[in-house]
Each structure stands twice: as structure tokens, then as C-alpha cells.
Amino acid sequence: MSTVYETMYILRPDLTDEQVDQAVAKYQTLIQDQGAENIEIQNRGKRRLAYEIKKQRDGIYIQMNYTGPGNIIAPLERAMRLSEEVIRYLTIKQEVSGAEAAEEKVAVTA
């Protein structure tokens, strides 16, 4: 069964646009290979952090929304943890409202 997830991660502010695109493509490919679908990526741009993280005051925020099995999260977060370009990440499971869940069941059974 697929679940809806949102992963928000912050990249170092000194990365070029090309390096940011490469990082986004790397993580998108990683979750696609693990079976994720309906991937939506939003580059939220460079923003000031609330507090210093890894000696950085700014960061480039990237948001990924996707559906997939729960076992895709561990490899994604492991890759982010080992990466030099990611300074912070967070994955949350989205709650599906009752109407959307009913629509999913109808779509699955049809």
C-alpha cells in the first residue's frame, strides 16, 4: 500500500544552481528506484535559517511530495545523512482525509 510522504531538506547555500539541480535529481532518482510515484518537487529558494546549522546561516530549501511504500524512507534519509551538501532533512507522513481515502479505494477497486 502506498502512503503519501513529504520530505523537506536544506542544502548548503554556497552550492551553484547546477549543483542544486544535481542534488535534487539524485534524490528524485533514488526514491523513483525504490518505487515512489507522483513525485512533486518544489525549490523554495535560499532562506535565512532560524539558527546556525553546521556553521551555515542560510540554506536552500527543497520540498518533495511523493507516494510510495514505507521502505523508501530509510535509504533516502541515509543518503542525505551521508551527503556533504544536505545540512538538514525531515520526512513526514501525510494524513489522508476521509474523502481522499474513499476516492483512493474507489480508484483501486475500479
From TrEMBL:
GO process annotations (BP): translation
CDD domains the record matches: bS6_chloro_cyano
Transmembrane regions: none
Record PROSITE patterns: RIBOSOMAL_S6
InterPro entries: Ribosomal_bS6, Ribosomal_bS6_CS, Ribosomal_bS6_sf, Ribosomal_S6_plastid/chlpt, Transl_elong_EF1B/ribsomal_bS6
UniProt entry tagged with the keyword rRNA-binding: yes
Keywords: Ribonucleoprotein, Ribosomal protein, RNA-binding, rRNA-binding
A GO molecular-function annotation: small ribosomal subunit rRNA binding
Keyword Lipid metabolism attached: no
GO CC terms of this entry: cytoplasm; ribonucleoprotein complex; ribosome
Cited PANTHER family: MITOCHONDRIAL 28S RIBOSOMAL PROTEIN S6, SMALL RIBOSOMAL SUBUNIT PROTEIN BS6M
Family membership noted in the UniProt record: Belongs to the bacterial ribosomal protein bS6 family.
Physiological role: Binds together with bS18 to 16S ribosomal RNA.
Protein name stated in the entry: Small ribosomal subunit protein bS6
